[in-house]
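ARCHIVE CARD
CATEGORY: sequence design from structure
SOURCE FIELD: tokenized fold
FIELD CONTENT:
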């Protein structure tokens, strides 16, 4: 009896460890944030006329394709992840998981996700999902070690989720889809550069060139962040200007933009890691608040 209980406990611990490894492998928190923006696009397009099974299928398909791209990203960067403290404990660098297992998982996730989009939604949603997966994994990921242009390239697949959510419902593009895409596209520059500022020393160990300045944490890099926040504010107000949403969301978006801009000004003034951290956390809060306010105040 004791041996059986011990065996069950061991199996439970092994299963728990494996699930934690897969959560790390697919970057679960990042994947959920990506899918959240797809949900906003889906709900905006459905305009109150949607069914739970369809929404859950879209969430599942989005999670699977996002997970696939994140796994491929870690396979490609396995040797570089070993060099950075923030990634050294991932399943692949520590050999807790083989590359073959990760590639098999990426293949299953990717094929399953795109197939769900193709069968239960439409070909356009499946196409955009495939483009996001492949461009993130095979263009953005290797480009990170050669040029800061990688951030611009990565912003394209990074902005596709709300557009994918929209076309999953409608089967076609529209001005609303492009506006949602535009907000998320511009937002990624201050968001990602704030992360790159905080983790710059770690990124340098792996040879990643992500900040806009070759010298790294410089006033020029801070100026670029500030510039994109200034661009983001009017872009985020486009839904109100185009009568997609109302005055309430415009006020919320403006206040969020003002706070975000203040954080960018502080970073430009101080050029410190602490200021970059505050901007980074501010960027995490900014996007969902803006998206939710536009959705709930839609006209």
């Amino acid at each position: 009896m004791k041996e059986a209980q011990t065996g069950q406990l061991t199996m439970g611990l092994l299963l728990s460890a494996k699930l934690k490894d897969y959560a790390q492998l697919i970057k679960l928190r990042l994947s959920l944030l990506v899918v959240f923006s797809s949900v906003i696009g889906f709900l905006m397009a459905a305009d109150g006329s949607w069914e739970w099974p369809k929404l859950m299928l879209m969430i599942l398909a989005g999670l699977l394709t996002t997970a696939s791209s994140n796994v491929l990203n870690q396979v490609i960067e396995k040797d570089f992840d070993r060099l950075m403290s923030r990634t050294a404990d991932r399943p692949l660098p520590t050999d807790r998981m083989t590359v073959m297992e990760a590639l098999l998982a990426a293949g299953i996730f990717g094929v399953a996700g795109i197939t769900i989009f193709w069968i239960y939604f439409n070909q356009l949603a499946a196409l955009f999902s495939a483009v996001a997966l492949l461009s993130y994994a095979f263009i953005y990921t290797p480009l990170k070690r050669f040029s800061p242009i990688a951030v611009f390239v990565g912003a394209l697949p990074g902005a596709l989720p709300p557009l994918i959510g929209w076309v999953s419902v409608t089967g076609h593009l529209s001005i609303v889809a492009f506006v949602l895409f535009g907000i998320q596209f511009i937002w990624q520059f201050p968001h990602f550069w704030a992360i790159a500022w905080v983790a710059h020393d770690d990124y340098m160990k792996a040879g990643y060139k992500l900040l806009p300045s070759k010298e790294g944490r410089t006033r020029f890099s801070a100026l670029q962040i500030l510039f994109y926040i200034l661009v983001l504010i009017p872009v985020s107000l486009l839904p109100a200007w185009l009568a997609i949403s109302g005055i309430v969301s415009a006020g919320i978006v403006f206040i969020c933009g003002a706070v975000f801009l203040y954080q960018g000004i502080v970073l430009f003034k101080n050029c410190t890691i602490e200021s970059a951290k505050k901007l980074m956390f501010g960027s995490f809060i900014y996007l969902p608040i803006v998206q939710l306010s536009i959705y709930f105040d839609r006209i």
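CARD ANNOTATION: Residues 17 and 96 are 10 Å apart (CA to CA). The chain has 13 helices and no strands.
SHELF: design records, drawer C
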